[in-house]
Design a protein that fits this description.
The complex is a heterodimer of chains A (131) and B (921).
Chain A lengths: L3 E5 L3 H13 L3 E5 L2 H11 L3 E5 L7 H10 L7 E6 L4 H9 L4 E4 L4 H19 L4
Chain B lengths: L3 H27 L8 H8 L5 H14 L5 H12 L1 H14 L4 H8 L4 H34 L19 H17 L10 H29 L2 H11 L1 H7 L9 H17 L1 H9 L6 H17 L2 H11 L10 H8 L3 H41 L12 H26 L5 H12 L2 H10 L5 H26 L5 H6 L20 H23 L4 H11 L18 H12 L1 H14 L12 H15 L1 H12 L6 H76 L5 H33 L6 E5 H19 L2 E6 L5 E5 H18 L6 E8 L3 E8 L6 H6 L21 H11 L3 E6 L5 E8 L15
Parallel strand pairs in B: 2-4
Antiparallel strand pairs in B: 1-3, 4-5, 5-7, 6-7
The chains are: A alpha/beta (131), B mainly alpha (921).
Chain lengths: 131, 921
C-alpha cells in the first residue's frame, strides 16, 4: 500500500511540482493550499508525511505542526518543513514545533525526494511490524 | 600763698587725678565693664570742644565783640541737634571699616588712597598747630599771671626770653609727656582709648565747674546779680553796643553765618572731635543723648561769658588787663586765691584735654597715613619682613606727639603774640573745614571720586594757606607785611586778605568764602571729569549705602562678626533676596525668629562660607568671609580680584550650562534619530526577509520544474508543455518582482528619476485603457469610461502615471468576477484637482485589509481561488508615485460589493482645457 503524503503549500506552481515528485516516488498525495484545509485533510487522509510550508495562510505551518505533535493519533506522521526564508530562527522554531526535518526553498528535487523517502522508511520500520 | 611750687604741685596733683581716672577706666574696660560705654560719658567727652579758647578766649572776644563770640557755640549746637544723623552714619562706617582716624576715613572712602590719607594728615597737622599753640599760650599766660599774685601783671612778650626760661616751652614739654602717657602706653588694635575718654569726660566736668564758679562769683559776689551787671554795662557807651545782637561790634550777617557754619564743621572735622565723637563711640544710640546734653553743656559754659566780660571791662576800664585773662584776673583782684587756683586748674584742664586728644588723634594719622606708608614702601627699611611692628608704631606716635607740641610751641613763638586766642582757633577751624566737601560729599554722593577729593582738598588748603596762614606770618613779622598789604608783585587783585577785590569782610569770612568756592568747585569738577575706578566705586557704595549693608543700629560685633554682615556678604554673591531667604531658614533652624537675633559665631560663619562656596568656590569663600569675620579687612585689590574672578567663573559656568543644555537636546535628538534608525533597520530587515521570501518562491518553482524536466526526458508532451509554461510564468514573475523591488528602492531612496512635465490626463487615461484592453477582453470584463469634457492638465511623469493606471486597471481586471466582470473608469475634476476612479464589481476588500494592501508584499486575495499573480508591491509603488506628485491614492470597498480605487492630483496652474472630447467607449 502506497504511503500517503500531504502537501500543504499555498503557491500553486510549487504544489504542482511537489505532487509530480511525490507521485513519481510512488506516494499517494493530497494538496492543501491553506492551514484549515490541511487540518481537515490530516484527519481524513491520515498522511504518513506532511510537506508543510511554514508560511501558510489561515493557519501557519508552525501551528499545524504543533497540532500534529499534540494529536496521539498522528504519532506516526512525519513532518518535513518547507521554508523560504532560511533564517536560523525559522528553522529553530520549526524544529521546536516538532518538525522532523526541514528543507529550504528553492530546494533540490533529488534531495527532497530522498529526505521524504528516508523519513517514511524510518517511520515504516519503526511501526511496520505493528501493522 | 600762691607760690610757684604750690601751683605746680596742685597742677601735677590734678594731672595725677586724671591719670587715676584713666587707669580706673582702662582697668574696668579690661574687665569688660566699660564706664565709657555710657551716653553721659560720651556726651561729656564731646565737650573736649571747649578748650582754653572757650575758657579764656570767649570772654576776651565778648569784651570786644559782645555776642559775637556766640556763633562758635551755636554751630556745634545746631550740628548736634540737626546734623546728628551725619555723625551716626560716620559712626556706622567707622565701626564697619575699623577706621582709625579722620585721614583713614577720607582715604578709605576714596578707594583707600594713601595719597588722600597723607594729604588729609598734612592739612590737619598744619591746620591744628596754631590751635595747639593757643593752648600753650593760654596755660603759660595763666600760670605766669597767677604766679604774679597778688599783683596783676601781664606776661612778658613772647620771645623776649630764653627758651629754657619760657614757661610755654615747659608747658609744651609736659603736655607732650601727658599725651604720650595717655595715648601711647599700648597699641590698641581698634584705636580706642577708654582711659583717655574717661579722663576727658572728667576734665569736662572740672572746667565747667571752674567756669560756673567764677561766673557766679563775678555776677553774684562782685556785682548784685546779672541784672545789676547788665544795667551797669548798658550805662557805658562802649559796652552798650556789645549787647546789640548784630551791632557793628558783633560782626556782619556774613560773619555770623560763616562762623556758625565753620563751627558746625569743626565739631565734626577737628581731629579730636572726630576721635571722641566717632572713633571712640561705643554705641550709636549714645548720639541721641549727646544731641541734647552737649548743647546744654555749651549753653552752661557760655552763660557767664558776657557777665564776666562786662565785669572785667567795668573793673579794668583802662584796658591794662588783657580781656582774655578776665576769668583769672577778676578772682585775683578780689583776693579769692582758691577760686583763682580753681580757674587755673579749669583752664589747664581744658587745655590738656584738648592737647592730649588732639595730639593722639594727629599722631595716629601721622603714623598710619604719613610715616608708615612711606616706610613700608621704602625697601631700605625692610619693614615688610618684620613680624611685629607694634613697638615701632608706638615710637613713631610718641615722636609725632613731641613734634606736634614743639611745632605748636614754635607757632606760638612765631605768631602767638599777634593774635587773640579766638583768632588763632578760627584759623584752625578754617583749616579743618576743608575736609567738609570731601567727607560730606563722600557720605551722600557716590559720584565723588578720588580725583575730586584730591583736587578739592588741595585747592581749599592752598587758599587757606594763602588767605589765612600767610597773613598770620606777615602779621608776626616773619613775612614782609607788604605781601599782605600790596599783594604779591604789587598785584592788588591777589592781596591775601582781599582776594580778587573781595573787601569789607573779616579775615575768616573772606578766607572761608574763597576756600570753599575753590574746594567745592574742584571737588565737583574733579569728580565729574573722570570716572571712578571699580575699587573706588566699591568703597563709595560701602560708605553711601552703609545702612543697607548692615542690620539694625547697635547690632554689636559680638564674637567674630555679625549675622547681618555675613548675610550682606553672601548677598553680594547670591543676591540679597536669596541670602535673606537662606539666613532666615538658618535662623528658624536655630529657633530664633529673625536673622538679627543670630549670633555671629563660628557656626554662622561656616554656614555663610558654605553658601558662598557654592558660588565662588571654597577658597575664595573663605577669603571673603575672612573680610567680615576677622579683625583686619582684606586689601581692596584682593577683594576686587576675587569678585572679578568669581563673576568670570559664574559667566563661564553659565556658558557651560548652556552648552550642557545644547548637548542634552542634541542627545535627545540623537536618541530619537537612533530610534528611527532602529525602526528603519527593523523595517529594512523585514523588507529584505520578505523580498527574499518573495524571490525564493518563483525560484523554487523554476528550479523544481527545470529539474523535473531534466530528470524525466520521457515526459508526455502535454505535461512537458505545462511545466515549461510554469517555468516561463514564474520567470516572468521573478523578473517583475526584481524590477519592482528596485523601482521601490529607487523611489524610497530618492534616486528615482522623475521626468516631470505638464500632461493631458485624458490622453493618458485613454492610452492606459488601450494597453489593458486585451486583459479585459481575455477575462470577459466590460469596461466603461466616464471622462470629464473639461480636463485640466497635471504636472507628472508620463510613464509613472501610466504605471499607476495600468496597475489599478489590471488589479480591477484580476479581481473582477470572471465572466460577469464590470469595470468603470472615471476622470473628473474641479478647480484644483484631477481625480481618477477605477471601480470593479469584484469581491471587495474588508475594512481591516484596506489599509494593509498599500503596504509592501501585502496581498489580499480570495484564498479560495488561486493566489493573485501580483508581487505585492504594485499598490505600494503606486501610492508613492501619486504622493510624489502631491496627490493621494485610496480605496473604498465593501466585501461583496466591489472596490473603488481612486487617486487625485493637483491641477497644473491655469491649465484647464475646455476640450470637446466626450466620454464613451
Amino acid at each position: 500500500m502506497a504511503k500517503r503524503v500531504l502537501i500543504a503549500e499555498d503557491e500553486p506552481s510549487i504544489v504542482t511540482s511537489l505532487e509530480f515528485l511525490m507521485r513519481k516516488a510512488g506516494f499517494e498525495t493530497r494538496a492543501a493550499t491553506d492551514g484549515e484545509e490541511a487540518l481537515s485533510l490530516l484527519g481524513t487522509f491520515r498522511p504518513h508525511l506532511v510537506l508543510l510550508d511554514i508560511m501558510l495562510p489561515r493557519r501557519s505551518g508552525l501551528e499545524l505542526c504543533r497540532l500534529i505533535r499534540a494529536d496521539a493519533s498522528l504519532a506516526e506522521t512525519r513532518v518535513l518543513m518547507l521554508t523560504a526564508k532560511g533564517g536560523h530562527r525559522d528553522v529553530e522554531r520549526g524544529l521546536e514545533a516538532g518538525a522532523d526535518d526541514y528543507i529550504t526553498k528553492p530546494f533540490s528535487t533529488q534531495d527532497l525526494v530522498e529526505r521524504a523517502k528516508g523519513l517514511m522508511a524510518a517511520a515504516g520500520s519503526a511501526s511496520g511490524e505493528g501493522q | 600763698m600762691l607760690q610757684g611750687w604750690v601751683i605746680i604741685t596742685v597742677s601735677f596733683a590734678y594731672i595725677g587725678l586724671l591719670f587715676a581716672v584713666a587707669w580706673f577706666a582702662d582697668k574696668r574696660a579690661a574687665a569688660g565693664r566699660s564706664i565709657i560705654s555710657n551716653a553721659w560719658v560720651y556726651s561729656l567727652s564731646l565737650a573736649v570742644y571747649a578748650t582754653a579758647w572757650t575758657f579764656y578766649g570767649s570772654v576776651g572776644r565778648a569784651a570786644t565783640d559782645g555776642v559775637g563770640f556766640l556763633p562758635i557755640y551755636i554751630g556745634p549746637t545746631l550740628m548736634m541737634l540737626l546734623g546728628w544723623f551725619v555723625l551716626r552714619k560716620m559712626v556706622r562706617i567707622v565701626r564697619l571699616n575699623r577706621t582709625t582716624s579722620l585721614a583713614d576715613f577720607v582715604a578709605s572712602r576714596y578707594g583707600k588712597s594713601a595719597l588722600i590719607g597723607g594729604l588729609v594728615t598734612i592739612i590737619a597737622v598744619i591746620g591744628i598747630l596754631p590751635y595747639i599753640s593757643l593752648q600753650l599760650k593760654a596755660v603759660s599766660n595763666s600760670f605766669q599771671i597767677l604766679l604774679g599774685y597778688p599783683e596783676i601783671v601781664m606776661p612778658p612778650k613772647v620771645g623776649s626770653m630764653v627758651v629754657m626760661q619760657d614757661t610755654a616751652f615747659y608747658v609744651a614739654l609736659f603736655m607732650a609727656l601727658f599725651a604720650i602717657a595717655f595715648g601711647t602706653r599700648q597699641l590698641d588694635a581698634a584705636e580706642r582709648h577708654e582711659g583717655m575718654v574717661a579722663a576727658i569726660a572728667f576734665e569736662s566736668i572740672v572746667k565747667l565747674i571752674a567756669f560756673l564758679a567764677v561766673g557766679s562769683y563775678v555776677a553774684f559776689f562782685m556785682y548784685d546779680g546779672l541784672g545789676d551787671l547788665f544795667a551797669r554795662a548798658a550805662s557805658r557807651p562802649d559796652l552798650g553796643i556789645l549787647m546789640a545782637p548784630l551791632g557793628a561790634a558783633a560782626g556782619s550777617y556774613a560773619s555770623w553765618v560763616w562762623l556758625t557754619v565753620l563751627s558746625m564743621l569743626a565739631i565734626i572735622f577737628l581731629p579730636r572731635q572726630f576721635q571722641v565723637a566717632v572713633i571712640e563711640n561705643t554705641d550709636e544710640r549714645h548720639l541721641r543723648r549727646a544731641a541734647w546734653v552737649f548743647p546744654l553743656y555749651m549753653l552752661a559754659i557760655n552763660i557767664f561769658v558776657l557777665p564776666i566780660a562786662f565785669g572785667g571791662v567795668l573793673h579794668f576800664p583802662q584796658g591794662e588787663v588783657d580781656a582774655d585773662t578776665f576769668v583769672l584776673t577778676l578772682p585775683m583782684v578780689q583776693k579769692a586765691e582758691g577760686l583763682a587756683l580753681l580757674v587755673f586748674i579749669g583752664g589747664l584742664s581744658a587745655a590738656t584735654g584738648m592737647v592730649i586728644v588732639e595730639t593722639i588723634a594727629l599722631s595716629t594719622m601721622i603714623c598710619n597715613d604719613l610715616v608708615m606708608p612711606v616706610l613700608l614702601r621704602t625697601r631700605a627699611f625692610r619693614l615688610t619682613e618684620q613680624r611685629d611692628l607694634s613697638s615701632l608704631l608706638l615710637d613713631i606716635r610718641r615722636a609725632a606727639i613731641i613734634a606736634l607740641l614743639m611745632g605748636g610751641y614754635f607757632y606760638y613763638l612765631l605768631a602767638g603774640e599777634a593774635y587773640a586766642l579766638v583768632s588763632i582757633g578760627l584759623i584752625s577751624f578754617a583749616a579743618v573745614a576743608q575736609f567738609a566737601p570731601a567727607v560730606i560729599g563722600g557720605l551722600y554722593w557716590k559720584g565723588g571720586t578720588r580725583l575730586g577729593a584730591l583736587a578739592g582738598l588741595s585747592a581749599g588748603f592752598t587758599v587757606w594757606v594763602y588767605t589765612l596762614l600767610l597773613p598770620a606770618f606777615a602779621k608776626s613779622g616773619w613775612l614782609d607785611a607788604e605781601l599782605v598789604e600790596q599783594g604779591p608783585w604789587g598785584l592788588e587783585l591777589l592781596r591775601p586778605t582781599q582776594l580778587f577785590g573781595l573787601a569789607g569782610l573779616d579775615q575768616i569770612t573772606h578766607a572761608m568764602i574763597w576756600s570753599m568756592i575753590a574746594n567745592v568747585g574742584a571737588y565737583l569738577i574733579g569728580s565729574v571729569v573722570r570716572r571712578q575706578s571699580a575699587a573706588e566705586h566699591v568703597q563709595a557704595t560701602l560708605f553711601v549705602d552703609v545702612y543697607q549693608q548692615t542690620g539694625e543700629p547697635g547690632s554689636a560685633w559680638r564674637g567674630a562678626t555679625s549675622a547681618s554682615a555675613l548675610q550682606t556678604l553672601v548677598g553680594r554673591f547670591l543676591g540679597p533676596a536669596r541670602a535673606a531667604e537662606l539666613f532666615m531658614s538658618y535662623a528658624r533652624l536655630r529657633g530664633v525668629t529673625s536673622v538679627d537675633e543670630l549670633e555671629g559665631d563660628r557656626d554662622l560663619v561656616r554656614f555663610a562660607e558654605l553658601q558662598l562656596a557654592g558660588t565662588i568656590g571654597a577658597a575664595s569663600a573663605k577669603t571673603m568671609v575672612a573680610t567680615v569675620a576677622q579683625e583686619e579687612p582684606l586689601g581692596l585689590e584682593e577683594v576686587m580680584t576675587i569678585i572679578d574672578e568669581a563673576s568670570q567663573v559664574i559667566a563661564y559656568s553659565h556658558r557651560l550650562e548652556e552648552k550642557q543644555q545644547e548637548l542634552e537636546s542634541a542627545t535627545l535628538e540623537l536618541k530619537a534619530a537612533n530610534e528611527r534608525l532602529k525602526e528603519l533597520d527593523r523595517l529594512k530587515d523585514d523588507f529584505i526577509s520578505t523580498v527574499t521570501h518573495e524571490l525564493r518562491t518563483p525560484l523554487t518553482s523554476i528550479r523544481a520544474f527545470s529539474e523535473i524536466l531534466h530528470d524525466n526526458p520521457d515526459l508526455e508532451g502535454v505535461e512537458r508543455q505545462r511545466f515549461l509554461a510554469l517555468v516561463i510564468k514564474e520567470s516572468e514573475r521573478l523578473t517583475r518582482l526584481i524590477n519592482q523591488v528596485l523601482d521601490l528602492a529607487k523611489i524610497e531612496s530618492g534616486l528615482a528619476e522623475w521626468r516631470t512635465a505638464e500632461l493631458d490626463m485624458r490622453e493618458i487615461v485613454l492610452e492606459s485603457l488601450n494597453a489593458t484592453s486585451a486583459i479585459f477582453k481575455a477575462r470577459g470584463v466590460q469596461v466603461e469610461m466616464r471622462i470629464s469634457p473639461v480636463t485640466p492638465r497635471v504636472m507628472a511623469d508620463r510613464d509613472r502615471l501610466m504605471q499607476v493606471l495600468l496597475n489599478l486597471l489590471s488589479n480591477a481586471a484580476k479581481f473582477c468576477t470572471p465572466g460577469s466582470g464590470r469595470v468603470e473608469l472615471r476622470l473628473s475634476c474641479d478647480a484644483s484637482t484631477v481625480r481618477v476612479d477605477v471601480s470593479d464589481n469584484g469581491v471587495g476588500i474588508s475594512a481591516e485589509n484596506q489599509a494593509l494592501i498599500f503596504e509592501k508584499f501585502r496581498q489580499v486575495g480570495d484564498t479560495l481561488t488561486d493566489k493573485p499573480s501580483g508581487t505585492g508591491l504594485g499598490l505600494a509603488i503606486c501610492r508613492r508615485i501619486v504622493g510624489h506628485f502631491g496627490g493621494r491614492l485610496w480605496v473604498e470597498s465593501e466585501p461583496g460589493r466591489g472596490s473603488v480605487f481612486s487617486f487625485d492630483l493637483p491641477a497644473a496652474a491655469g491649465a484647464a482645457d475646455p476640450g470637446s472630447l466626450a466620454a464613451g467607449a
